[in-house]
UniProtKB/TrEMBL annotation:
The chain crosses the membrane at residues 397-423. The lineage of its organism: Eukaryota, Viridiplantae, Chlorophyta, Pyramimonadophyceae, Pyramimonadales. The keyword DNA-binding does not apply. Pfam families: Metallophos, Metallophos_C. InterPro entries: Calcineurin-like_PHP, Metallo-depent_PP-like, MPP_PAP, PAPs_C. Residues 305-363 form the Purple acid phosphatase C-terminal domain. Residues 57-267 form the Calcineurin-like phosphoesterase domain. GO terms for molecular function: hydrolase activity. Keywords: Glycoprotein, Membrane, Transmembrane, Transmembrane helix. This is Calcineurin-like phosphoesterase domain-containing protein.
Length: 465
């Protein structure tokens, strides 16, 4: 137990939950683009975070009720943009969550972006780790308040909680192949023991897969000193291309299951997408369970490519730039977060929770992997072949089924000549669903302020992500 303040005027005693480090069932909150909200009319920058008060409330309640193991906020935290009072208000807002469970944050453009000539220099006159894009989205903060107020906020990080490893990258600095960050990500992913932690997640602020036409290199939103050099195009498509080129091979090589992104203030769920080919390697299939529909990505052995989720919906006003991209499966303009629940080594589910209208599940998806992650190490081709026939996988079932059908057809054709038999494939019970919270709409006591706030949010305009 730690205590802040003088002995005569000590702080409130707070209790933090320490989650399991390996091979345990866990529930994580995944969110981005939060901001600061109030339940009255006091607000600094209306479109940046008014509904975030409800995100904080819901997450705080979950954490205090021991229904959450950790939370990950990947960029655009407070939108303080140089106003320290807003940082203080935001810190107060997140206290119920951040004091109860581990709360990992990483940098976004509103923490890090600053014109190139404003970056501080070290004693040798060299710049500190510079912002990749320039612009002025941080209000000149250069990441300093975020790092200072939140302790040792790393530029990038990796952590394992239960059976999930989360590698958090910083899309605002150099991530090109061979850079310090690229090497860090590679080493983190390579070190994962899939026997212990079968699920691997990457987070970053600017999206590696996004359905958006936002931004252009010509505009270089947010600053006068932005230089659109190769690899530093700040448009959504420009950043996506760079991430796919530089980080994509790592996601494929180390079989990352999920990639979470923010920056666009929207919820988008995409297919499992192969960066190299530019195609979906797997789309979800609807599964009806107890009257609700789950979008299931069934992985016979290993993730063919990561499923991409954009969830920049924790509070900032919506970014309406979607264009019905072929890889996009769901687009929602609601505020909330993804509750990620690793039940076991074969089942990982995510629920996008609407926090403004009560805790309603707006999208429910699941990754189902029959192999239990065993074959998702960097296996040799021989080992992969062995795993394919090890039993229990969907590929195995299909293979046996096909052999049986062909054998039956051969016998029938030889001995009877004209009669064909048809078989119905029996349903296979792939997994057990463990429902937790949120099945019923949550009563958040929608008072007049809440409704007015919601109206204002829906009617306000968008500035920048
Ligand atoms: Fe952003």
């Amino acid at each position: 137990m730690a205590m802040l303040g003088s002995p005569d005027e000590a702080s409130e005693v707070l209790t933090m939950y320490i989650p399991p480090t390996e091979s345990a069932e866990v529930t994580l909150a995944m969110l981005a683009d939060m901001g600061r909200g109030t339940t009255d009319d006091s607000k600094t920058w209306h479109e940046y975070g008014t509904p975030s008060i409800y995100t904080s409330q819901v997450l705080g309640e979950l954490a205090s009720a021991n229904k959450l193991d950790a939370a990950f906020l990947f960029g655009d935290l407070s939108y303080a943009v140089g106003y320290s009072s807003v940082w203080e208000e935001w810190l107060d807002q997140i206290e119920p969550l951040a004091s109860a469970v581990p709360f990992q944050v990483s940098m976004g453009n509103h923490e890090y972006n600053s014109p190139f000539d404003t970056w501080p220099k070290d004693t040798l006159g060299n710049a500190y780790v510079p912002d990749r894009y320039g612009g002025g989205d941080s209000g000149g903060e250069c990441g300093v308040p975020a790092k200072t107020l939140l302790g040792e906020v790393e530029l990038f990080s990796g952590v394992t909680i239960g059976m999930v490893t989360v590698v958090s990258m910083n899309t605002e600095i150099d991530f090109d192949t061979g850079s310090d960050q690229w090497e860090f990500i590679k080493n983190q992913l390579a070190a994962v023991d899939r026997q212990q932690t079968p699920w691997v997640v990457l987070t970053g602020h600017r999206p590696g897969l996004i359905d958006s036409s936002y931004g252009s290199c010509d505009a270089c939103h947010g600053g006068d000193n932005c230089t659109c050099t190769e690899g530093a195009d700040p448009s959504d498509l420009g950043v996506m291309a760079a991430l796919q080129r530089e980080i994509g091979p790592l996601l494929e090589e180390y079989r990352v299951d999920l990639a979470f992104w923010g920056h666009n203030h929207v919820y988008q769920r995409h297919c499992a997408y192969n960066y190299a080919t530019g195609e979906c390697t797997m789309r979800s299939a609807p599964l009806e369970v107890n009257g609700s529909t789950i979008a299931v990505y069934e992985q016979p052995m290993c993730p063919p490519s990561p499923v991409h989720i954009v969830v920049g919906a924790a509070g900032a006003d919506f970014t309406r730039n979607s264009n019905n991209a072929s890889y996009s499966e769901v687009v929602l303009y609601e505020h909330g977060f993804v509750q990620l629940h690793a039940a076991n080594s074969t089942f990982l589910e995510g629920k996008f929770i609407d926090v403004v209208h009560g805790s309603v599940v707006l999208d429910h998806f699941a990754l189902v992997r029959q192999s239990g992650g065993k074959s998702c190490e960097a296996a040799s081709p021989e080992e992969q072949e062995e795993d394919l026939f090890a039993g229990g996988s969907a590929a195995h079932v299909v293979f046996i089924f096909t052999v049986v059908i062909l054998a039956v057809l051969a016998v029938v054709l030889v001995f009877y000549g004209v009669t064909f038999y048809f078989y119905d494939r029996p349903p296979k019970n792939h997994f057990m669903l463990r429902e937790r919270e949120y099945e019923e709409p949550r009563d958040l006591d929608l008072d007049q302020d809440h409704l007015e706030m919601q109206s204002n949010v829906l009617g306000s305009s968008f500035r920048s992500n």
